[in-house]
Amino acid sequence: MSRPRVAITTGEPAGIGPEIAIRAAWAMRQRVNAVLVGDAAFLAMTAAEIDPAIRISAVSTMAARNAGLPHFGADRLCALDIPLGAHVQPGVLDKENGRYVLATLDAAIEGVQAGWFDAVATAPVQKSTINDAGVAFTGHTEYFAEQTGTARVVMMLAGQPHSPWPAAASAAVPPQLRVALATTHLPLKDVSAALTLDSLAQTLNILEADLRRKFGLAAPRILVAGLNPHAGENGYLGREEIDTISPALAAARERGIDARGPYPADTLFQPKYLQDADCVLAMYHDQGLPVLKYATFGHGVNITLGLPLIRTSVDHGTALDLAAQGLGRADCSSMQAALEAALQMVQASRP
Ligand SMILES: NC(=O)c1ccc[n+]([C@@H]2O[C@H](COP(=O)([O-])OP(=O)(O)OC[C@H]3O[C@@H](n4cnc5c(N)ncnc54)[C@H](O)[C@@H]3O)[C@@H](O)[C@H]2O)c1
Ligand SMILES: N[C@H](C(=O)O)[C@H](O)COP(=O)(O)O
Question: What is the CATH number of the domain that holds 193?
Answer without folding.
Answer: 3.40.718.10
